[in-house]
Amino acid sequence: MSAFVPDVPRDVPADTSGAVDTVLTLTGERTIPDLDIENYWFRRHEVVYERLASRCAGRDVLEAGCGEGYGADLIAGVARRVVAVDYDDAAVAHVRSRYPRVEVMQANLAELPLPDASVDVVVNFQVIEHLWDQGQFVRECARVLRPAGLLMMSTPNRITFSPGRDTPINPFHTRELNARELAQLLVDGGFTDVSMSGLFHGPRLQQMDARHGGSIIDAQIARAVTGAPWPRELAADVAAVTTADFDISTRAIDGSLDLIAIAVRP
């Protein structure tokens, strides 16, 4: 998820050290690191990897839908092995070039290219809302997990991300979920012990919300949709966001920005 298509250069080198092997395009479908104007969305995604990475320590991990690959690489710092899968050829080439400690494969997430019971953790952050057959994907996650394995998933909360709409506001999303719908999807897919939490703005981001008409999110989206110039203060605030500016809590989940679910494969 990203602020759709911000008015910035779209081509981002795969290797920021200078050797450019592949190029990813900022389309609004996925977030990309190292862009000030995209920094809010990147940090909003990165924080979930940071907070949940310890659950991958010493384990065999699959990231289903790895996108740019920064999250798979973060997990590779603690996991025994990380396999990443993405449907997009350019993303796969980018990950292979930039993150050599991640094993990456191109595949459809509805048919994961792994044997039964072959991994301990499946990570799926900000991906399920892009999929047409969400139920089939969840069943595939259950298939590749070992007994007692974990599925860790995050997704925008439909209640706050597309309020009052029957269809997602983001053109790259097929179906968004609320907490009850996400939990039911996981149970129907064969998982138990589903725990749910939500991601929220912490105090500093709440101050930024107040400075930008009540929502720094809406301020960014308005510029992306209309192509209007970014005010200097908005650009500076977005560039300054860190993962420490987000809170994760089990309270008032229906009001959260993103949903975070952890479920157990029996």
UniProtKB/TrEMBL annotation:
InterPro entries: Methyltransf_11, Methyltransf_Superfamily, SAM-dependent_MTases_sf. One of its GO terms (molecular function) is S-adenosylmethionine-dependent methyltransferase activity. Residues 62-152 form the Methyltransferase type domain. It comes from the Bacteria. SUPFAM superfamilies: S-adenosyl-L-methionine-dependent methyltransferases. Keywords: Methyltransferase, Transferase. The keyword ATP-binding does not apply. This is SAM-dependent methyltransferase. One of its GO terms (biological process) is methylation. CDD domains: AdoMet_MTases.
